[in-house]
Amino acid sequence: MSEKLLIVEDDKKLNDGIRLALKNDAYFFYQCRTLQEAREILKKEDITLVLLDVNLPDGNGIDFVREVRKNSQVPIILLTVNNMEVDIVTGLEAGANDYITKPFSLMVLRARVSVQLRNKEAAAKNSMELDGFEFYFDKMEFFKDGEPIELSKTEQKLLRVLCENRGKVLKREYLIDEVWQGDTEFVDAHALTVAVKRLRDKLEDDTQKPEYIKTVYGIGYTWAVNG
């Protein structure tokens, strides 16, 4: 799946230069030269990362960061004129993820973009929203219909493996190995069954007819994608 990058820079030569510098089969570029164009693209497209000039013909990029942050956490890298320390501090406080001062090295540009895309990918793996559930594995916070759920470390590990492999049937042996990682010789044969039961008790409306954590008899368990 392509990463969708939005370049908001009114200098056409620099705008095109950034696109050429970042050219990559995994990236798809949207280019615009005003904040109004940027607004329209952000409304229509699921943008992965924004490269945003601070000084634009129809407004200030930092004000635009505040506007975007009201309903989106898309990574934003500011493009600022060298030595404008006030812009940098204000931009980061407004919610920008990083900044690059002009003139900049294309190697630095590529590296900064890669870092933000990696961070976004890592954050996505640490949080999941499924149906009425919200799981934040890095913060160890879990919610069902807005209500907090307390999970043990074992239950958290089991939940994560199931959710990251939604729709796949996972063998009991694989789950035991993933959840207890290396301590499998000390794991009671029924430990997985017990962990699954406890997790179902906390997540399912009807544990006799589970919608999410389903047993695949003789094999293991699956998190049903149509749950």
TrEMBL record:
<dbReference type="GO" id="GO:0000976">
    <property type="term" value="F:transcription cis-regulatory region binding"/>
</dbReference>
<feature type="DNA-binding region" description="OmpR/PhoB-type">
    <location>
        <begin position="125"/>
        <end position="225"/>
    </location>
</feature>
<keyword id="KW-0238">DNA-binding</keyword>
<feature type="domain" description="OmpR/PhoB-type">
    <location>
        <begin position="125"/>
        <end position="225"/>
    </location>
</feature>
<protein>
    <recommendedName>
        <fullName>Stage 0 sporulation protein A homolog</fullName>
    </recommendedName>
</protein>
<feature type="domain" description="Response regulatory">
    <location>
        <begin position="4"/>
        <end position="117"/>
    </location>
</feature>
<keyword id="KW-0597">Phosphoprotein</keyword>
<dbReference type="InterPro" id="IPR011006">
    <property type="entry name" value="CheY-like_superfamily"/>
</dbReference>
<dbReference type="InterPro" id="IPR036388">
    <property type="entry name" value="WH-like_DNA-bd_sf"/>
</dbReference>
<dbReference type="Pfam" id="PF00072">
    <property type="entry name" value="Response_reg"/>
</dbReference>
<keyword id="KW-0805">Transcription regulation</keyword>
<dbReference type="InterPro" id="IPR001867">
    <property type="entry name" value="OmpR/PhoB-type_DNA-bd"/>
</dbReference>
<dbReference type="GO" id="GO:0032993">
    <property type="term" value="C:protein-DNA complex"/>
</dbReference>
<feature type="modified residue" description="4-aspartylphosphate">
    <location>
        <position position="53"/>
    </location>
</feature>
<dbReference type="GO" id="GO:0005829">
    <property type="term" value="C:cytosol"/>
</dbReference>
<dbReference type="InterPro" id="IPR039420">
    <property type="entry name" value="WalR-like"/>
</dbReference>
<keyword id="KW-0804">Transcription</keyword>
<comment type="function">
    <text>May play the central regulatory role in sporulation. It may be an element of the effector pathway responsible for the activation of sporulation genes in response to nutritional stress. Spo0A may act in concert with spo0H (a sigma factor) to control the expression of some genes that are critical to the sporulation process.</text>
</comment>
<dbReference type="Pfam" id="PF00486">
    <property type="entry name" value="Trans_reg_C"/>
</dbReference>
<dbReference type="GO" id="GO:0000156">
    <property type="term" value="F:phosphorelay response regulator activity"/>
</dbReference>
<dbReference type="GO" id="GO:0006355">
    <property type="term" value="P:regulation of DNA-templated transcription"/>
</dbReference>
<dbReference type="InterPro" id="IPR001789">
    <property type="entry name" value="Sig_transdc_resp-reg_receiver"/>
</dbReference>
